[in-house]
Design brief:
The structure holds three protein chains of three kinds.
Chain A: H1 7-11, H2 13-46, H3 50-65, H4 68-83, H5 89-114, H6 118-126, H7 131-161, H8 173-184, H9 187-218
Helix pairs in contact in A: 2-3, 2-5, 2-8, 3-5, 4-5, 5-7, 6-7, 7-9, 8-9
Chain B: E1 5-14, E2 17-27, E3 32-37, H1 43-50, E4 58-63, E5 66-67, E6 70-72, E7 75-77, H2 80-89, E8 90-93, H3 105-115, H4 121-134, H5 150-162, E9 168-172, H6 180-195, E10 200-203, H7 207-213, E11 216-221, E12 224-229, H8 231-236, H9 241-249
Parallel strand pairs in B: 3-10, 3-11, 8-9, 9-10
Antiparallel strand pairs in B: 1-2, 1-4, 4-5, 6-7, 11-12
Helix pairs in contact in B: 3-4, 3-5, 4-5, 5-6
Chain C: H1 8-11, H2 14-47, H3 51-65, H4 69-84, H5 90-115, H6 119-127, H7 132-162, H8 174-185, H9 188-217
Helix pairs in contact in C: 2-3, 2-5, 2-8, 3-5, 4-5, 5-7, 6-7, 7-9, 8-9
The chains are: A mainly alpha, B alpha/beta, C mainly alpha.
The structure holds adenosine-5'-diphosphate (ADP) and magnesium ion.
Magnesium ion binds near residues 43, 44 and 173 of chain B.
Amino acid sequence: MHNWDFAATLGDIDFLLLGLWNTLQVFGLALVFGIPLGLAIALGRMSRIPVLSQLCSFVIEFFRTTPPLVQLFWFFFALPILISVQMTPFVASVLTFSIQSSAFFAEIFRGGINSIDKGQWEAAKAIGMTRPVCLRRIILPQAVKRMIPAFAERSIELLKTTTLISTVSYADLMFQANELASKTFRPLEVYTVVAVMYFFLILVFSQLTILLEHRLARSGEGTLR
Amino acid sequence: MTPAVEIRDLHKSFGDLHVLKGIDLDVQQGEAVVLLGSSGSGKSTLLRCINFMEEPNDGRIRINGDLIGAERGGKMVYRENELCKLRTRVGMVFQHFNLFPHMTVLENVMEGQVVVLGRSKAEARDKALAQLARVGLEEKAPEYPSRLSGGQKQRVAIARALAMDPEVMLFDEVTSALDPELVGEVLKTMRQLAEEGMTMVCVTHEIGFAYHVANKVCFLQDGQILEQGEPHKVLKTPETSRVRDFLDGHSLFKLPD
Amino acid sequence: MQHTWNFASVFAYWDVLLIGLWGTVYLFVLTCVIGLAGGLVVGMLRYSKNGWISYPARLYVEVFRNTPVLVQIIWFFFALPVVIGVEVSAFMAAFLGITLNTIAFSAEVFRGGIQSIEREQWEAGKAIGMSYAKTMRRIILPQALKRMLPPLTSRGIEVFKMSTLASVVAYPETLQQAKLIASYEYNPIEAYTVVAIMFFLVLLPMVQLTYLLERRFGKSD
Ligand SMILES: Nc1ncnc2c1ncn2[C@@H]1O[C@H](COP(=O)(O)OP(=O)(O)O)[C@@H](O)[C@H]1O
Ligand SMILES: [Mg+2]
């Protein structure tokens, strides 16, 4: 029977916390870029211009059907050769996850916008609103509320997917764990601690979104699932 | 006097379906016109063409003398900007209210004034409260629509349209989605508007309302106006058997002799 | 700098890629089939009214849904051997990680699907004298399965993509093989582009299928 010994792991917890911080940076930036980009792609897909709509559909399908690890390798190893730029693991990670999550967010936006009763568009149009104004003032505020559970689910998927960036040597939590495991020869303890860290990180995140959902539900009409 | 609404040879198709087949209709200022007709006869489509929720395929519409759209090669073309502006001049109330659920009653009535007409918040608020008082719902201003009854929602929807100071109001079966006991309060509000001299075009199945309030009744059949005239004439002594049959189907409403 | 595309340098290794594709499909089929079957079982346990049964099932689901698959795979590959004292192969680590994850996710789909059936259906079954098990099998599941089809198909797509994670422990699946080719030939652009297109071509019909299923079974019946 193995003797569990967490001393080495917990002694180097700073090392892991640095990794956690790096993970959160990529996660946060991917959300900051991915959500607006997702909205833009969703609007493009719903536009009445066929070329634009098809192009956006293609982008969505492509990034939903290709594995994130392949995308990451492509952006990290292939793109720099194509456009001859310096590519750091950090930039490649943020780029990959912003674009790939925007494809998923786009579908959530589209679903949310489509779920709003056509009567809302009609009423806004009838008091003289243009389509963009109606979208901004009437449709999106209602749609976003309904999308929160789907947003949360997707963001959690994104957070879990960020572990892939360890494979391009970005010092995220997973990468730091690998380093620490080989340094301390204590893989069991290190990986168990890291699994627990991810578990609680995701738990806290999902509880926060539930709180947000309740908060918003109390103002006016509730979220509809 | 220029009519508030002047419609000439209006045609509208959805794909192959020819819905409006040459409508001519004048609505004088301060007049209340009721459109009757069986389901699918094109009443809603006609109403929605008046504020260009649907763009007509052919014909001319003038609002207080202004021709909407520009003629190019015998066809009318419409710019989105022009239509948005027009819709502020022509208010519309829907069967299903379509209030904005994420805004309070007050915000619902202020929204168009602020965002579309560019009025100041303070001015819009005063106007909104005045219109809510007009429909008897001043005290509901801070509530969200989900807290209101159907009849109250519909009166808020009327206030929202009135707040834009429209020249014409359109009502599309505004009592059809209401519980029977709530119909009266909405009809009363509409009647009061008519008496105040608001120009109105109403689609309704309330024959009693048509009889007592309308200045003119039009009966639509297959996208054409089959009969039009004063209510006591069209409703009491219709010329065609079609209108007679339709009215017999509504015998629930006994008209006074 | 102008890059000259040279896909021949990838297709020269078509046999290497084929091995990878086989590895992907093999892993996918096993993880998917066992994952879905296990998910059905765990989903039913989770639905049970007995807390001693439903609570552990719930704990399992939460743990495996709320930790990254890659962490699970690495844990099985590096940490599990320490516990059991036996080497764990790359395949086994990937298989365990992805399967246990799929069980957790599909359990939630099954549970949600069963819960979405109106309670009147249960009562109707009871009223004509059916047992709980019989009602579940004859009345509830057939209806619930219809509603579960779209989310289960999406899960299948996710599992297929997840198989690439096995490359991290050097299991020879498609991406791992492409990595090899890229390191021999210094052609990462072509190698990874080919892999991306391969996945796109395989999964696009699946995505279209989910749209179709959503339209058919999504909202109402
Ligand atoms: N947006 C639309 N697209 C296609 N057909 C429509 C549309 N709106 C109305 N129609 C058709 O036009 C006809 C008239 O509809 P409508 O004006 O709503 O009738 P009414 O209000 O008198 O019941 C009906 O046959 C209806 O199906
Ligand atoms: Mg109608």
